[in-house]
Amino acid sequence: MTRLHQILIGLLAVQLILVGLVFFLPKPGQAAATPLLGATKAEEITSLAIRDDKGTSIKLAKGAAGWTLPDAGDFAADSAKITPVTVKLAALKAGRSVAQNEANFKRLQVADEAFQRKIEIGTAGGTSYTLYLGSSAGGRATHARLSGQGDVYIASDLAPFDVNADAASWINAAYLDVPQADVTNLTLKNAQGQFVFEKNAQGQWTMPGLAPGEQFSTNNFTTVLTYASSLRMTRPLGKADQPSYGMAQPTAVVTLKTKKDTQEKTITLTIGAKDAGDSSYIVKSSESPYYVKVNDYSVNELVTRGKVNFLQQPAPGATPTATPK
């Protein structure tokens, strides 16, 4: 081996060492990607309190029976919706810091009083964390900061819309679901009066007690039947009645009589006060121990409809047909 060969082999060895340093040593300014929540595992997370930038908030807690809403009489939450979030929270990494200046926190929406999501995380061991999720960092990445720390990191695969602060995102929002085919009688009572509807032997809906010349509008009634038999909540409130719910003087009461095979049942739906702050009504079904909030459009037809809304107006000169018996 000549001297030249030895020099070339030496240079090659130096190059290989440099390549190793470039690929395997941490980049300047990049810390080791340690878990942002330390050694916390997803199954060790036992509570979440979520608040968004509009002031909406929700609390979730895990007990022996699973996840619930503790502020709503321990209404059952959907673990299948919560578990993926706890997994993502435990997987967050504190990698390269993208901002350390407190002046940037508000711009990135991870400041104590300016954020997209504030998530208070409790664990079985008693350790707690407060995490701020802010603006998008591109793709599924989001700026994130732990309370009390001066570094902002990139949270991958976790965005504010994954952690909504409305109750409906974490529960089964179906509150009342009665098969319309099983309903045989519907009585609606509201400020306009009391209206009774019956299904005859042919399976047709009728409105007894109409005056001569009045014709029942099946289509108009079907709308009311749809709203009365299928209702989704926006938020459960709990099992205890409150004077502010307005149940003592309800805005509407619907009574459904059903029959399936030989089983008969009576279901009562009471619609209480309207909350002008969020355009919702308080509702209580005899099928559930919980008082809930529903969107106003879900029950407006039950609250506002009067007799005239269930009548078919005949065309000028037409002869009214008889109401089915």
What does it look like?
There is one protein chain. The chain is α+β, with helices and mostly antiparallel strands and 325 residues long. It is 19% helix and 36% strand. It has helices at 3-24, 79-91, 103-107, 218-229, 296-304; strands spanning 34-35, 45-52, 57-63, 66-69, 75-76, 93-94, 110-111, 114-115, 117-123, 128-138, 141-146, 153-155, 174-177, 183-190, 193-199, 205-206, 230-232, 235-238, 252-260, 263-275, 280-285, 291-295. It has an eight-stranded antiparallel β-sheet with strand order 5-4-3-2-9-10-11-12, with helices on one face. Strands 16-15-14-19-20-21-22-18 form an eight-stranded antiparallel β-sheet. A two-stranded antiparallel sheet has the order 1-6. Helix 4 (218-229) packs across helix 5. It starts with a helix and ends in a 21-residue tail after the last helix. 27% of the residues are buried.
